Amino acid sequence: MMTPQTMQSFPYSNLLPEIILGSGIILILILGLFDRVRYGHLKLLTSVIVFGSFVYTLLPNSNSYGGSLLLADGKNLLMFKAILSAVALLILPIIRRDQVSKNQSEFLSLFLSLLLGAQLAFTANQMALLLLATELMAISAYVLTLFLFNQQSAEAGLKYFIYGSVGTGLMLFGFSLIYAATGATHWNQIGQLLQQGNLDGGLPAAGVIMMTGGVLLKLGAAPFHLWIPDVYAASRFSVLAIFSTLPKIAASVLLLRWYGGLAFSADGQWMAILMIVAMVTLVAGNFPALLQKNVRRLMGYSSIAQGGFILLAVLISNAQPFSLAFYLAAMSLSNILVFYCLNWFARSHGAIDSKDFNGLGRKYFIPSLGLTVGLLSLTGLPPLAGFSAKVFLFSGLWFAADATGSQIQFSALIFGLLNTVVALFYYIRIPRSLFLEGGASGRNIQLSWSEKLFILSLTLVLIAFFIAPAAIHLPDFLN
Predict the structure, then answer these.
(1) Which residues, including other chains, have CB under 8 Å from residue 327's CB and lie 6 or more apart?
(2) What single DSSP character describes residue 10?
């Protein structure tokens, strides 16, 4: 409990990234009440807010919070927070005025609320704060789903809300069981008590299972993935860019913290269980995606499969989280590029199904190139960042299996390789339609210079991360 004395000594300056985001949410909502404030002004202010949070995150000593509610795990946490803020900055160009109707300030404030919840979720060192952070992230996501303002988005938002409520209930019930077993609410204390092994085995195990289930829903992993295809089919591409990146980063880092110091004991049982969950998730994402023609649903199943790969990266990243950080960065950049280009094709040609892209690659080379590069990077093909990310992932699985002799880790490696091949068959469908099919017609629509610059810049970044993947680590800066 914080007394007046501890409140005065608390280092509030170290919470400045979160304070900037929270203040920005309120400011944007207030400015949205005035008719003279245009969408461009609100979006510029949002960019400044996110950029300010990002810059302060990288400053020296910004990773030392003090107190007991928030915990910073040194350079590793700083690296993940920097990736989260950078990804949020790159999502902003996808958000366009004509796609948020008259609710411009509300959309941008919900975006910032989701980002704030994601940042707090993996820095929280206390049960109540973690629950509030995940709920802030979840409620923002529920409302963002509704921004198509039609019956389909309403139904998808309701389904998302129901599944999300189940996940929240699981997490809350897990917290209560952990508290009943340990009498503690802070994760560092709980981790110490669990590692001592003097507790009743039933309550902690049940609590960990339920907590993990709640986080797996945010990650989109099986068996908590059923909401994703319908939500993706009923949401705007700008919203899908948010859903496919920010919540997954937060959930994966939260699992990594639990794996490193709380839930996953050295006996390997938790490792084996989550390896099986990851493999089931890969199947649940990749094989239904082969049957999809609607690009939104296809990317929904792709998101499920990416959740499986992320879970595998979490499980091998306890000693060295760089492989997880690089995978999250490569996946996020690839998704942003894909959704930016899909958004452009949907606006200019109403492209919704894979056949709608027939022959467009010859007329619109730059967005077609960007879309192809993003999809191939998600597949894991060279010379793109996704290939380096898969190399880190699969080599980590190989070394872990070789060191421990674990059959489940070796099975996960083979399973991941086979599912990468399966993913190629549906990822390549759209590039094939773009460049190998005929049928493009209609008026020629020119891209603006800013659109061309954004697409080409992200394309070059994905290639650069293949050539020099260690750049994502920013070793000199973090030192």
Answers:
(1) 309, 310, 313, 389, 392, 393
(2) S
Widest CA span in the chain: 72
The residue to which tokens 């680590």 are assigned: 473
Looking at residues 214-226, what average pLDDT do you find? 90
Could you give the CA distance from residue 94 to residue 149 in angstroms, rounded to a whole number? 19
In a domain, 107, yes or no: yes
Domain assignment present for 250: yes
Q: Which string of DSSP letters, residue by residue, matches 269-306?
A: HHHHHHHHHHHHHHHHHHHHHTT--BHHHHHHHHHHHH
Query: With 50 as the cut, is the pLDDT of residue 476 above it?
Result: no
Residue with token string 């879309």: 371
Length of the chain in terms of residues written: 479
pLDDT in tens, 377-406: 999 998 999 999 999 899 888 888 888 777
Name which of 86, 102, 95 is nearest 43 in CA terms.
95
**Domains in the chain, number:** 1
Residue 381: name the closest of 421, 337, 328, 436 by CA. 421
Confidence of residue 93 (pLDDT cuts 50, 70, 90): very high
CB atoms within 10 A of CB 279: 21
Mean pLDDT computed over every residue of the chain: 85
Backbone angles phi, psi at 149, to 5 degrees: 55, 50
In a domain, 3, yes or no: no
Range of the domain at 186: 14-478
Contact 49, 20 (CB under 8 A): yes
Q: Is residue 223 part of a domain?
A: yes
The predicted-structure confidence for 186-211, as pLDDT tens digits, reads as follows 887 887 777 776 666 678 888 888 98
For residue 405, the SS3 value is coil
The answer to whether 299 and 232 are in contact (CB under 8 A) is yes
Question: Which positions ≥6 away from 131 have C-beta within 8 Å?
Answer: 168, 171, 172, 175
